[in-house]
Design brief:
Layout: E1 2-6, H1 12-27, H2 32-48, E2 52-59, E3 65-74, E4 77-84, H3 93-108, E5 114-119, H4 124-132, E6 136-143, E7 146-154
Parallel strand pairs: 4-5
Antiparallel strand pairs: 1-2, 2-3, 3-4, 5-7, 6-7
Helix pairs in contact: 1-2
Length: about 160
Amino acid sequence: MVLLRETVEQDIPEIYRYIHLNYVKKYCNNNLEEQWKTHEKWYKFLIHSDSYVLYTVTSSENGKFYGCVKFELEGECAIVNVYLVEDIRHKGYSEKIIELSIEELKVKHPETSIVLAYILEENTPSLSAFRHLGFQYDGTEEYKGIDHMLFIKTLD
């Protein structure tokens, strides 16, 4: 089972280690310390910003880091991004994690009535998870410079 909680600064090293470090090692191998400082600063900003909500996902049994969920808030809309470690992908966790995070978002930000998910076409596990959760496909849009499939869910 999983536990979802608001991210705190003490979570930043694990987020970096499990989500960013392999990419950084592959593409920025001569700048590891600088990359760490940049990521640390970015996550501190996210944690303390009124424009974002960041949740850390851990094992409820042993506290092991499983990933994080980020919402970017834009008025009544929130853009969701889900990052899960390899160990729990393709095991049915993502739907429950997305569902839990949206329920938490509704409590913390009741003004949010629409959640948007931008998903790459080749990310079939995410496409399936968001569809199962009632997100509706709304066409293809550019998001962060790349074409993504846009899925929308109106909250109750």
